[in-house]
Amino acid sequence: MIKAFLFDLDGVIVETAIFHYQAWRQMANDLGFDISEQFNEGLKGISRMESLDLILKHGGIELSEDKKLELAAKKNENYLSLVSKMTPDDILPGITDFLKQIKQTDIKIGLGSVSKNAKMILKSVGLLQEFDTIIDGTKILRSKPDPEVFLKGAAELGFSPDECIVFEDAVAGVESGKRAGMKVVGIGKPEVLTKADIVLAGFEGLDLNVLLNQI
Ligand code: BG6
Ligand code: MG
């Protein structure tokens, strides 16, 4: 019996991955190297500081802790200037209707994101009130693929992992959900999200009951 849906934010509710990519790419370019879109795929679901470490390693650059904090702050500033213009029009297609369908049932809605900007983004797109619980980067110690974020979401709602379904667009996020012992709906490409129970291209036209029968 499914009691809760736990949604990732970036790439599931809103398309912010492109902004993360742009801001990190700008930083890498300033340091004298580039990062590809394929490399960026591996940063999805990974915390800010861990992403920074992966990027610096990729560029063969070693920096002091202070310098790293400075770069991360600057990247976040650039990222915020890109996402601050978001409005309800930036909600990914089909999400609003899917949330409406969920509201007509007893299924609870949770957010499981490692982003420290999650609440701000939900507020700008007008979805903050739709969530029964929000677990974000300020509430966890370990980023995805660790299962902490989804286990906390389930615990806050008072359900066991097998009563929850996770929605994820990132390889690390799918692994996080699976390690939490939950069913995972991948949002994206089956050849990328190989560990998901099922993979959908998106939420457009998605029928809640059809999905529950499929998974
Ligand atoms: C995740 C994104 O949702 O949040 C990652 O997929 C990002 O790319 C992470 O690094 C942390 O985000 P923020 O907003 O705290 O820098
Ligand atoms: Mg994501």
Q: Can you tell me the residue ranges where pLDDT is under 50 for at least 5 consecutive residues? A: none
H-E string: EHHHHHEHEHEHEEH
Number of domains: 2
Do you know the CATH architecture of the largest domain? 3-Layer(aba) Sandwich
In the CATH hierarchy, the third-tier topology of the largest domain is known as: Rossmann fold
Please state the CA-atom Rg, rounded to the nearest Å: 17 Å
Secondary structure: number of strands: 6
Q: What is the residue-averaged pLDDT?
A: 97
CATH class of the largest domain: Alpha Beta
Helix/strand class:
alpha/beta
- Report how far the terminal alpha carbons are from each other: 11 Å
Largest sheet: 6 strands, parallel
Order of the strands making up the biggest sheet: 3-2-1-4-5-6
Percentage beta strand:
5-15%
Bound molecules: 6-O-phosphono-beta-D-glucopyranose, magnesium ion
Query: Helical segment tally?
Result: 9
- Fraction of residues in helix: 40-55%
Under CATH, the homologous superfamily of the largest domain reads: HAD superfamily/HAD-like
Shape: globular
Key words describing this protein structure:
DNA polymerase, domain 1; globular; binds magnesium ion; 6 strands; Rossmann fold; 9 helices; binds 6-O-phosphono-beta-D-glucopyranose; 215 residues; 2 domains; alpha/beta
